[in-house]
Amino acid sequence: MQVFRSVYGPLGTPSPCVLTIGNFDGLHRGHQGLLERLVVRARALDLPATVMTFEPHPREFFAPEQAPPRLTSLREKLELLAAHGVDRVHVCAFNRRLAALSAEDFIQQILVDGLAVRHLFVGDDFRFGKGRRGDFTLLQQAGRARGFAVEAMQTVIWQGERVSSSYVREVLAAGQLEHAASLLGRPYAISGRVMHGDKIGRQMGFPTANICLKRKSAPLAGVFAVELTGVAGDNARSWPGAASLGTRPTIAAGLKPVLEVHLLDFERDIYGTHVTVNFLHKLRDEARFDSLEELTAHIARDVAAVRDYFQNMKNG
Hints:
Elements: E1 2-4, E2 17-21, H1 29-45, E3 49-55, H2 58-62, H3 74-83, E4 88-93, H4 96-100, H5 103-114, E5 117-123, H6 136-146, E6 149-153, E7 157-158, E8 161-162, H7 165-173, H8 177-184, E9 188-195, H9 200-203, E10 209-211, E11 222-229, E12 239-246, E13 258-263, E14 274-284, H10 292-315
Parallel strand pairs: 1-4, 2-3, 2-5, 3-4, 5-6
Antiparallel strand pairs: 7-8, 9-10, 9-14, 10-13, 11-12, 11-14, 12-13
Helix pairs in contact: 5-6, 7-8
């Protein structure tokens, strides 16, 4: 999959494509349905299946303190888009200039002059341009005048529920990981590089892999049963573990969120490795304890509960 940091394709010139536009945060089943249609149409027209997305998320640009936590980092999103058959991704800087474009200028400068779109898929609630004045009707009118087709993708209903990124966040915040996995079509996951930490877990007898969180906040917090993948030499093998995601209130107040994973029966050095943590089941909320001894006792119970969880999974 090719990734570009502008609206222009190979060699910096317009290259005809079948296109969809969106943030694709979480790449849930609704997004997947849209991408499936995109790829089918692109293959039929012998054109690249192309996604235009934004960095930062528009809500992060307009109101950074009120923006919801991201479900996926940019790297995670790109990996998921590639896995669903996308050929090209244009990561466009969402800045004052882009935000100030009128809907008509967005169509002409971005869709026509930049991306040379031949067929466009958008969600049924897609809005664009200054003041969000652009809508599906305007796109249809422009398409007829400029020679590209436009299709709307209806909201996906999965097992009786409307699938959206905001709903996935709500489910994750409630600790309903199995429900979130159903909406996503896979377990919710966070990827990052294993970094050196303060070694407190090791001192307590439970060494952890500290995963670098390249995000201001996470959509979930607490203690979880997880599986970790990406260890060099293990191919697709997953390692079971107990994970803590939160601000570690027992250690100090006001700390940044940290993702720590204690892998069961694992003693290898994986510092510097880029890994993925798949969240399977929530054990409890994060809590503040009066001493490290009390915290250690709770961690021991958490690890035992995780062992029971995976044993029950194994036994069916």
